[in-house]
Amino acid sequence: MMQTTLHKFSFVFLAVVFSVFIFAHTTKAASITFQTSSTVVHQAQNISIDVLLDPQGQNVNTVSATVAIPNDLDYVGVDDSTSIVGLWVDEPTFDKKSRTLVLSGIIPGGFTGSIDPFNPSEYKPGTIIRLLLRGHTAGSGLFSLPDVQAFLNDGLGTETRVSSGSLPLVVDELLQPGSLDFFPDNQAPLEFQPVVERDLLLYDNQRVLIFNTKDKGSGMDHYEVKEGNASWVIAVSPYLLKDQEMKGDILVKAVDRDGNERIEAIPAANPFNKWQIVGLFVVFILLVVLTMMHLSHHMHYSIKKHIEKKETEKNDVISKV
């Protein structure tokens, strides 16, 4: 009887422990899901879909995802102006053949959720990326996340469990032609501060330029870099400087999708300034003047000696006569 009671107690104890274990791990799984204003879109109609991260009480600082996009929609681009990602490790890249968007990025300081101003005790998911799409042909499809990963901001880069959602979407028979622009934008990208760094693990400790910003309107398109008097070149961060001595100013141009620009500068580390040029010019003039004076003195001395010689020869001739 006592053995049966102990057996039942052990079973119940293990069941409770197992349930607590499962519950704890279930609640600690972050989630990546989709959100949109409507799951029905007309042909030629623009639609945006947010990919959201809910850390579920954890502090997540790195995410990666593969987003599968149905064939019934045209991929237009992405908007990261409201993204919680501060630095893209892999810029969001769409592959037409597989119809997938691949991305990975770092969230500096980590992300535990966005505070709800109407309920400060609750945290809301944050936007990883916003998909910009357009209805193409009538039909139905499913957005999914076949591959997702998240890592904690714990100093160890611990990978945490992630659940992924899906989103069904229908493109109906109606045609809605109109403006192809998602965001009429005449504002420049946000201010930013490019920096020059050196790291033993990056380009053999050579100087690299690091830069990043966001655009609140149409989203970022590309960056350009100009070193000294060199031409502008398309660049991605980190960018290996051609002039490792940094003799000229470094300019970084951020360009959004509507062509708006913002340029930030880093002053030359070893500038050849105008005062150096003036100083060299003054030294050159002094050298020229001193050289002319020396030549003039030498010529004067030579002429004097020649005249004295002639006078001596003349006096010798007179004395002989």
| Count of extended strands | 21
Remind me, CATH topology of the largest domain? Immunoglobulin-like
Instruction: Tell me roughly what share of residues is in helical segments.
Output: 10-25%
Low-pLDDT runs of 5+ residues are: 1-26
Q: What is the multimeric organization of the chains shown?
A: single chain
Structure class:
alpha+beta
Strand fraction equals 35-45%
Explain this structure to me?
It is a single chain. The chain is an alpha+beta fold and 321 residues long. It has 3 domains: 148 residues, Immunoglobulin-like; 72 residues, Immunoglobulin-like (Sandwich); 40 residues. The chain contains 2 helices and 21 strands. A hairpin with a 2-residue loop joins strand 8 and strand 9. It is elongated and about 130 Å long. The N terminus is likely disordered.
Which characteristics define this entry?
alpha+beta; seven-stranded mixed β-sheet; disordered N terminus; Immunoglobulin-like; 21 strands
Q: Could you outline the blueprint of secondary structure elements for this entry?
A:
Elements: H1 2-27, E1 30-35, E2 40-43, E3 46-54, E4 60-68, E5 73-79, E6 87-95, E7 100-111, E8 114-116, E9 119-124, E10 126-135, E11 139-152, E12 159-160, E13 162-164, E14 167-175, E15 195-197, E16 208-210, E17 220-227, E18 233-235, E19 239-240, E20 250-256, E21 261-266, H2 274-320
Parallel strand pairs: 1-13, 2-14
Antiparallel strand pairs: 1-3, 3-10, 4-7, 4-11, 5-10, 6-7, 8-9, 11-12, 11-14, 15-16, 16-19, 17-18, 17-20, 20-21
